[in-house]
Specification:
The protein has three helices and eleven strands; from the N terminus they run H-E-E-E-E-E-E-H-E-E-E-E-H-E. By secondary structure, it is α+β, with helices and mostly antiparallel strands. The strands form three sheets. A seven-stranded antiparallel sheet has the order 4-5-6-10-9-8-7, with helices on both faces. The longest helix is centred in the last third of the chain and has 21 residues.
């Protein structure tokens, strides 16, 4: 009888030990990496400013000097709007700041970063928006006397901050490059 019990136990162990243990796969995040941007000077036609644009973007310029830098691989766009300063600088500044803070409802945080380039007479503010807001970045630049440009970053998809973060960071760096390289035409 002792042999029968040992034989039964060995048989049970053989049958149950041969099965693969099924484990759920851990959640994974998609890792998006983009090559370093290559830039060229824009030709904006009759618009009153120029800047360096990423070669991976496509530039569309309207007759009113409204521009769209489209990034099809990232499914995002940077929208630029030019306005002439004509005694209305305070109104333009208020409107640009108000537009940035309209995203506060969905945003986790809005970080302001002032920008000053006295040599080129370019002054402005960069707003980095974190969270599931419609726009991840907003900015404005001006020379305080004649020119005013605003810009906004939008993606073609419903905002999911964790998913678009790598693309948002890449495009925020492009916005900074626009601000740093912007020059007013005389």
């Amino acid at each position: 009888m002792n042999r029968w019990i040992w034989g039964f136990m060995v048989g049970v162990l053989v049958v149950f030990s041969c099965k693969e243990e099924i484990l759920p796969k851990p959640k994974a995040m998609l890792r998006l990496q983009y090559k370093a941007g290559e830039y060229t000077r824009t030709s904006t036609g009759d618009c009153n400013y120029t800047f360096d644009k990423n070669l991976d973007s496509k530039l569309e310029v309207n007759p009113s000097c409204a521009m769209v830098l489209d990034y099809p691989n990232m499914k995002g766009s940077i929208y630029l709007t030019y306005k002439k300063v004509d005694g209305n600088l305070n109104t333009l500044l208020t409107d640009a700041q108000k537009l940035s803070y309209e995203h506060v409802v969905k945003a986790d945080n809005i970080a302001e970063q002032p920008f000053i380039n006295q040599e080129k007479k370019v002054y402005g503010m960069f707003y980095e928006v974190s969270g599931n807001a419609a726009s991840q970045s907003q900015f404005y630049v001006t020379d305080s006397t004649d020119h005013f440009v605003t810009g906004s970053l939008y993606f073609y998809a419903k905002p999911n901050y964790d998913s678009i973060l790598p693309a948002a960071i890449y495009l925020q760096n492009d916005i900074r490059k626009i601000m740093e390289s912007l020059e007013w035409k005389q």
